[in-house]
Every structure is written in C-alpha cells, then in structure tokens.
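I have been asked to look over a protein record a colleague put together. Alongside the sequence sits a line of tokens, each denoting a local backbone shape. Please read both lines and tell me whether the tokens look consistent with the sequence. Take the sequence as given and treat only the tokens as open to question. I have pasted the whole thing underneath without changing anything:
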Amino acid sequence: MPRNFLAPYRFEVVGGSGQNFLNFLQNNKGNYHLNAQDQTTLILNSVNIQGNRAWGYLQYGRYGAKSPVVDVTTQQITKTIEPNESPLYDYFYLVEYNSRTNSGYILLQRIGNIGVRTAFSDALRSWGLNVRIEPVILGLRELLSKPIMEIRIKIPKKPRDVDSRLEKLEIENEEESYVEVSIKCRRNRFLQLVDSMKQAILNYDLSNIGHIYDENEEINIVVKVGKSQRTINITKGRVRTWVEVENVGNIKYKAEQLLEEIKKDIGGD
C-alpha cells in the first residue's frame, strides 16, 4: 500500500470575483474536469460545510493506456481498462475559509507520489474561479533538526549512463519512466545533512543545494517526528512539507489537528 500524506497550502481567490469560496464548492459539487493534455480527470465528489470549513473527497485518475486488471487471489485477468477509461481514487480535502479576505487554508491528501493540487486548481479555474494555491512551509527549521530516516532523489528522465544499463529491459513506455534513488541508514541509525545544506534549505537558496543528474529532479527528505514521519520536498526551486497519515480512516481528525498547528505556527486567526 502506498503511504498517505496531508499537504498544507494557503489559498486566495484572485480576480475580484466576489464569490464565497465555500458556496462555490457547494454549487460545483459533482462537477467534472478533464485535462486532455495531461490525460487526467478530476471530480468534486463531495462537499460538507460547517461554519467556515468544508471537507470531502476529490476523485482523481489518469487515462490513456490500455491496462489489464488482475485478480490477486486467482492471478487471472478479469477485465481491461481501455485508453478512454480512468480509474478514480479518492483524495480527502479540508478547507478553512476567511470570507473577509477571500482566502484561507486547504489540506490535500497525497497518495504515494501523487497529489491533486495542480489538478484541483485547474478544475476550479475551468468552473469559473481563479484560486491561487501556494504551499505552507510548516516548522522547517524544527524538521531539519529531527532524525533523518531517508533521502529520496527522483530524476524525471533516465540519465544516459543509467539508460544504457537498462536497455535489456526493453521498456516500451519510455516517456513515463524515471529513476529514483533511495538512501537509508541501518536500523536505529539516522542520516545527517551538512550545515551548509540545511542553511540553503532554510534560506530557500536552492541554487546552492545542487543536483545529481538533472536540475528538475525531486528531492524528498523523510524525518522522524515522534512515532510518525514528515517529508520535506524540494522540487524545481520550491520547498514543501508533507505530514504522513498512518490511518486514513482518521484523516479528517488528523487534518483538523494539522490545521490548528498551521494557524499556531503562522499566527493565523
């Protein structure tokens, strides 16, 4: 099972539309958005409103490839997903909205390496509301002082020297492949970053971090916080933080806790 995370963001309705964001969500419940270029689809599946908060699920998936489906018990192929069909996965969201500033916070679920921030933002725009959604950096200095459990480096395209070693695999969907390097310590031990690297991250001076193969590579630093984990993500000059959710059945409660932590850390009302 892929790990689940909550990604915190600030949002602001831009363009002077004057629309109440929670009412807009309610009015667009069930709406569908298709991105033909990225071959993705998103549905605003449910909207629950209480006071200045809304929560529910987005359904998100990709299409474009013919994919057989196997029964893992019998090992038999039971059906085939056609290129024009998209499996949909539920992604939880929680919004707190300030109608005076037409802005607020939004927490979005990530499943493994897949998030829905860009797709959701595009969907809102296609439905008539331009919303700027920016990552919230939560307690970055404190996180970098925690034990580092793992560092993952995702390289968007296979480097030439790696690619030449993989020729025997004869991978057909070359455009969808990437290389991911994972660095872990032995049991009960932890990794350490040099001070210059930590300072570069804290100052958002990402040009000093450098890259292994590709300037577009994605770096994930997984740190231990109590019994859970948090991920510092560095992608294309941006730093983000994610919070792991061990029990997705309890994701709303976890999101509410994280929202209060964000407001306390930032000093929101």
